[in-house]
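Entry 14. Ran structure prediction on the chain below.
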Amino acid sequence: MKMKKSLLLLFVVVMAVALVLVGCKKDPDNGTTPPDDGGTPPAGQSDLKLIMATGGTSGTYYPFGGVLSQAINNNVDYINVTINSTGASAENIQLVASDQAQLAIVQNDVMSYAYNGTPEWTGAAVTDQATLMSLYPEVCQIVVAADSGINTVEDLKGKKVSTGDVGSGVESNALQILAAYGLTTDDISAQHLGFGDSADQMKDRALDAFFVTAGTPNTAIMDLQTSRDVKILSLDADKIAALQADYPFYAAVTLTSDDYSFLTEDVTTVAVQATLMCSPNLDEQAGYDIVKALIENQATIAEQHAKGAYMSKETAIEGVSVPMHSGAAKYFTEQGLTVPTP
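Output, structure tokens:
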């Protein structure tokens, strides 16, 4: 009888230990605890679902957002990111502020306008935003016909110039660059056209120049080049310095024939940064694991989308225009980098 009781007690102990061990392993259906290489979930958030606001389906943000979300989903076990097509930067900031999205791709200059409530931003300031990392440069490009006789920004005076859609980030960049040269829209015949319409107007010789803020190579510029020889204007070094003094989100960049095969000499200009942002309320560990996944899987991202080639831990902290998320700041500090404080 005593032996039976001893065996029963031993059986109970063994079963209890087994249950504990099973409980420590991840259940693939409920996602309780990810493995060591999949990040540590925030307390009480074993299955974190996030929406990433991107841009239009024909632009860069939407497909690139898809690649970024896949990298996150594949490397952070407790996070699942879904992308949404949107109207891009300004709308994305509002979506994050209202918690209709938790992540977004946004131009860093538009982030600055919204955060500080500058005249370029329509409505009240939106401070409920944080930087996770800069992704790639969106270059300010001034396109003119090669035979136009326009060689400098000053030469735009009196010309028909498209400064981008009204209220767009392109328009803000155009007005700032013109102002650096002492020009306003009163000095030009301002047109308000998107990239494709601007290229079409230049094909028909109804437009002398147009501004583009986008990654390179830009499709509209490449399409125009097949019908009419074009060039891109350089900005003077002192004007670039003045722009950076007034608008710290600008970075100086150089375009070469690697960007556009038709360039016969390098072009110096400025760029803003396409930025992955979030709400500052995103859990610190989640922010850390998202940035870690993207930086450590950059090579795979670059294989899937050309813009991934620009990503690195060093460039990720360039052009930061609003405070960095605490988790991202922790990651980059651990990498030995000095996190900027805009």
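Residues 1-37 have pLDDT under 50 and may be disordered. Will compare against last week's run tomorrow.
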